[in-house]
Please model this.
Amino acid sequence: MNNNQSNSGALLEVKGLRIEFPTRRGTLRAIDGISLSLEAGEILGVVGESGAGKSLTGTAITGLLERPGRIAGGEIHFNGQRIDNLPSEAMRKLRGKQIGSIFQDPLTSLNPLFSVGRQLIETIRTHTDLTPRQARARAIEMLTQVGIPAPEQRIDQYPHQFSGGMRQRVVIALALCVNPKLVIADEPTTALDVSVQAQIIDLLKTLCREHGSAVMLVTHDMGVIAETCDRVAVMYAGRLVEVGPVQEVVKHARHPYTRGLMGSIPKLGEEVEHLVQIDGAMPRLSHIPKGCAFNPRCPYATARCREDKPEFAQAGRGEVACWLWEGVDPDADPDQLFEELALAQRARHQAEAGNLAVKKSVQACGLEV
Amino acid sequence: MMNAHVAQDAMTMATDKAAAEPILRARNLKRHFDVSPPWLNRVLERRPRQFLRAVDGIDFEIHKGETFGLVGESGCGKSTAARLAVGLYAPSSGSIEFEGVDIGPLSRKQMAPLRSRMQMIFQDPYASFNPRWRVKKIIAEPIRVFGLLKTTAEVDARVAELLTQVGLMPADGDKYPHEFSGGQRQRISIARALASNPDFIVCDEPTSALDVSVQAQILNLMRDLQRQYRLTYMFISHDLAVVFHISDRVGVMYLGAMVEQAPSAELLRNPRHPYTRMLLDAIPDLDMSGRARTPVSGEVPSPISPPSGCTFHPRCPHANARCTSERPVTIATDGGGQVACHAVEEGRI
Model:
């Protein structure tokens, strides 16, 4: 995970990835130096608000980045092999066989003109040497595994004959039918109702455990992350701000942005008049502030945050990119740290208010200061 | 001083909430859509007429100053209920009363004075704006349509005031909708809804297209405005956590029927209907308590041919013969709510 070279245990390793979009008004840096790794069988959640670069990271890994976007720097290693510079034919073989994809909208990832079975069989036969008959049996087996009732009949039906949840199951079957080592799931449940969402998440978890696949789950739903993932990476304006085990990030986040994000989610059974709110909005790619990208919205920002970009550093069992953690014991309790920060801030506000009051009363007495 | 004001407001609200007439009352409200095949096909292929029962006999009351939340999966009739509530659809049968006046049979002309008192906020604000209009024109539209202010200067001042209220700058009025982010656009649509000084606002998934941090800003803003102007909200969302956060009472819809409604804390603490329990159980949990979920099975059936009896019976773990044949009636629960379920009525669950 850290910057130590080629951690041999990692299935996927992204090092210093930079993605840029050249435009008429200059180059936009959509992804700015992301490093993360994924072990075999692990589920990594990637969260962030729209435009943070979550999906782009996923598309870069699968080699589906569309022009004019390009990888401007960094490396992606998969299974010990560098894949970011593979020719498209080699990448096409890898995709599907080794790396499966699940997208948000199941209807657009299925071809409406072919039956579900034909699409499954095509995928299976492209990547394995099964005979058509064996491939069909395998397709039926996959449909059974993803919980589609009466798969023998359903296999010959077309995508429009399936409901949203069932379609997403078909897409999962498609992604997993040749046992890929890595599955990139980009907002797989966002288009679905809660009850179906729970079914799909359970399914994805079980199947990946059975197949031993690693999953990179891109979503903006923290609840889904909390229930599914082993580790979480939080993104903001094209940068990683925090990575860590899911409990630590959700409950005891180290980055002010992650803390704000967690607080802004309404929680069942918790009655509050106001939700925690992070004022402002994520900057546009063309106007990413100097220093830490979060500094204009951060309640604890200092002069340094406005000047220097914080580096990723170990903290507890995770990593965080924030100057607040500079020179602090990395194992310190984040909750305590933020409590102290809040206290200090309140004291400062009071002092300022006090100064003002003193000034006013002095002026009221008609004295010159 | 501000706080004291709010507290006082909250108190008067609590006292007259009990006594006052509801601002909106639906009685056995139905809306069916004709989805029959064309006449020729019906004759030649002997196909019957078909109706989609989007809302099939719901009852609810919304009191002044409260927020009534409506949850359910897609296709359960939430949005149709919302449109019925502001008179955008005429009911097929049943009645919908706004301050005691049945708005169903009213003509456009008769409806006009009531219109300015009801407003709507939609999920996708961009789709509800004219992209060629400047924001100030968009916000001023209700003022012009209802003829609330006479001079241009007055209208401009009011628009500036509204923009400030929703957390934008008066200067933003000169921009076009595409220049704003999703959250800002939703603020504009809130400003437009407030422009006619409404009492009742229907919010149809107002935060579903927004990121969580922006969602928090909008929810906080809506709550502040409610306190300030004693607004009544009907709040529709598929996100249960959001609905429970903002609502005083919550109704749960399934296939056009209101299966349960109760004060939100009560519904959360003590859900009675198996469908409510299932929904609550399905929410991914930030606590990671690792609780055992009841496996949810199945999906919402088609509202064109809903299941017999209780429409939830094919997915219900407590269904028996009676549930498959007889439609349950709504009964009052001891927690101040209402539920329509045979199993609850018989004390089986």
Notes: The longest helix of chain B spans residues 2-19. The interface with chain A takes residues 73-74, 181-184, 211-217, 219-220, 223, 238-242, 244-246, 265, 268-269, 278-288, 293, 295-297, 299-300 of chain B (CB under 8 Å).
